[in-house]
Design brief:
Chain A is an alpha+beta fold. Chain A has eight helices and five strands, in the order ααββββααβαααα. Chain A has a single domain, classed as 2-Layer Sandwich (Nonspecific Lipid-transfer Protein, Chain A). With 403 residues, chain B is α/β, with parallel strands linked by helices. Chain B contains 14 helices and nine strands. The chains are: A alpha+beta (138), B alpha/beta (403). Chains A and B meet through helix 4, strand 5 and helix 5 of A and strand 5 and strand 8 of B.
């Protein structure tokens, strides 16, 4: 059974998580410095999340379709995204196994993985805030 | 090697066609793939030295008119790829053949992307984002090192934007890798050694990588034996077909290993240094490999020890003067792992390879440059497969010591 029951629930959780990341200077500053626009395209259920750091000043978080051309697109099942935020996904392995599709300069996105690692600890709290149990869901 | 309970996927859809003079039969392979007009991507040096002749002759005699594109530079770029695509489209090519080293092979893969997809090649940069099969592809390596003939990636320089484009997709696997050792006979000693050390690095880094698996391990171990036993001979006696065959096969096996398991810190640094100074990839790996092995020693001692026992146990020191590879069952893991590092250093010496970055032509490494290189290397994808955590400070130390 899929972790997220609807697009709305998925986008809600992911958006909340990214807003928490935005509030954490350690993570946010490094992401903003990257000047990247990264779009996450989820399936089962479908979902779209865009993180725009292109102005090097602030992190903008959008859910749903938006008229911004991303520099990097990462596509995956929503369940893979969930497992990723629980710290259970080896990203190079997931790329090798075709579980993640990355369009654009992938190395730039991979370089940010250590930066967002502290969010693994935040994610279960975000899920719980939305009435979901991280362990049950995972 | 990781636990047998860990999931993995080992991919190799490529037929490996190995043997002396197999290039002379390439037309049959083109026919098997249903091709009638082959684009042959190569470089001018290989044309001048008639390395491509057996394949071209085979194609001509079969009536499959080869369309030769020989304008590939050592570090291929998007403009070159675009010229080749235009040429192939104009000529109506339905098969892509590459005869050459890593740059030629990567060019051919990128050309194939462009032949089968409309639009700017930059739009297809990424991992797993190609959506359909490309034209049939035969890759014929003329060096023994990169393993590109069995890899699913291609890297092309985008000079306009000052960056390298990375393409990774299962559709970039060749249909056939044609390994003809005779094509390597005239490869000069320094290139034989340098490219060979790329393969050695593939063996050692893939064997300890975070995504290593039982299949990649077996290939890395066996390729390691072939390389330690034959690379010095292939370097000093280029026409030794036994040594050429062994190193070509080993390079392919190491290519399969790293394609499925990744590489590590040595490649991350070599990519970075090569990007800044244009140093030869194999040579840069050669210089850095002992340092990378030492860095990872604390996390991979058991694995290095296993590699050493496999190498030493194969009797490689009977034919080659490796003092560090005389099998001694009394060595503990720490001693065996250290013996492996010494064996690599002995191999470098036997092949007459440089031991410092300075010898590669890097004039100076200021503190500022060292820090810049270390920070860039930390963002190289190769480092994600490294078995132990690597810090900027670790890389700074390696760069200073290796200089």
């Amino acid at each position: 059974m899929a972790v997220f029951s609807s697009t709305e629930e998925l986008q809600d959780v992911m958006s909340l998580l990214w807003h928490e990341i935005k509030e954490s200077p350690d993570m946010a500053n490094k992401l903003i410095q990257s000047k990247l626009i990264v779009q996450f395209r989820y399936r089962e259920p479908e979902g779209l999340l865009t993180i725009d750091c292109s102005d090097a000043e602030t992190m903008k978080i959008y859910t749903g379709p938006i008229n911004i051309k991303p520099m990097i697109e990462m596509s995956m099942k929503a369940d893979i995204a969930h497992e990723f935020w629980l710290g259970k996904v080896n990203v190079p392995m997931a790329l090798m196994m075709g579980k993640i599709v990355s369009r654009g300069p992938t190395p730039k996105a991979l370089a940010l993985l250590p930066v967002i690692k502290p969010a693994y600890a935040i994610y279960p709290g975000v899920l719980e805030g939305k009435g979901k149990n991280a362990q049950m869901a995972g | 090697m990781t636990s047998f309970t860990q999931a993995f996927k080992f991919q190799n859809p490529t037929i490996i066609n190995f043997g002396l003079d197999t290039a002379s039969g390439i037309a049959d392979l083109v026919a098997e793939l249903g091709g009638s007009k082959a684009l042959v991507v190569t470089d001018q040096g290989l044309v001048d030295h008639k390395i491509v002749n057996p394949a071209i002759q085979s194609l001509e005699e079969s009536g499959c008119k080869p369309v030769v594109f020989s304008d590939v530079p050592p570090d291929s770029d998007l403009q070159c790829v675009e010229r080749a695509i235009e040429y192939a489209k104009r000529e109506g090519c339905d098969v892509v053949i590459a005869i050459g080293g890593g740059s030629v092979i990567d060019t051919a893969k990128a050309v194939n992307i462009g032949l089968c997809n409309e639009g700017d090649l930059r739009d297809f940069e990424g991992i797993n984002c190609l959506t359909h099969r490309l034209k049939p592809m035969i890759l014929v390596p003329t060096t023994a090192g990169t393993g590109s003939e069995v890899s699913a990636v291609a890297m092309i320089r985008d000079k306009e934007n000052g960056k390298k484009l990375l393409y990774g997709s299962r559709f970039l696997f060749a249909d056939i890798a044609l390994l003809d050792p005779r094509l390597l006979v005239s490869l000069p000693p320094h290139l034989t050694a340098a490219t060979g050390l790329d393969a050695v690095t593939h063996c050692l880094e893939s064997f300890v990588s975070t995504t290593a698996n039982a299949v990649s391990d077996s290939l890395a171990l066996e390729a390691g034996i072939l390389l330690f036993a034959n690379l010095p001979r292939a370097t000093s006696c280029g026409d030794d077909l036994e040594a050429r065959s062994s190193t070509l096969l080993a390079s392919c096996m190491a290519g399969l290993a790293f394609t499925n398991a990744g590489v590590g810190v040595v490649h991350a640094l070599a990519h970075t240094i090569g990007g800044k100074y244009g140093t030869h990839h194999g040579l840069t790996n050669a210089v850095l490999l002992p340092f990378g092995l030492r860095l990872n020693m604390s996390t991979t001692e058991k694995l290095y020890a296993r590699f050493w026992r496999h190498l030493a146990g194969s009797g490689v020191s009977r034919d080659m003067p490796y003092t560090s590879l005389v099998y001694d069952p009394s060595l503990n893991d720490e001693q065996a792992a250290l013996a492996l590092v010494v064996a690599v250093e002995e191999l470098l010496k036997l092949c007459g390879l440089p031991r410092s970055l300075r010898e590669l032509g890097i004039p100076e490494l200021t503190d500022e440059v060292v820090m810049e290189l270390a920070e860039v290397a930390m963002t190289d994808p190769a480092i994600m497969f490294n078995p132990g955590e690597v810090t900027v400070e670790n890389l700074v130390d390696i760069l200073r010591e290796a200089f």
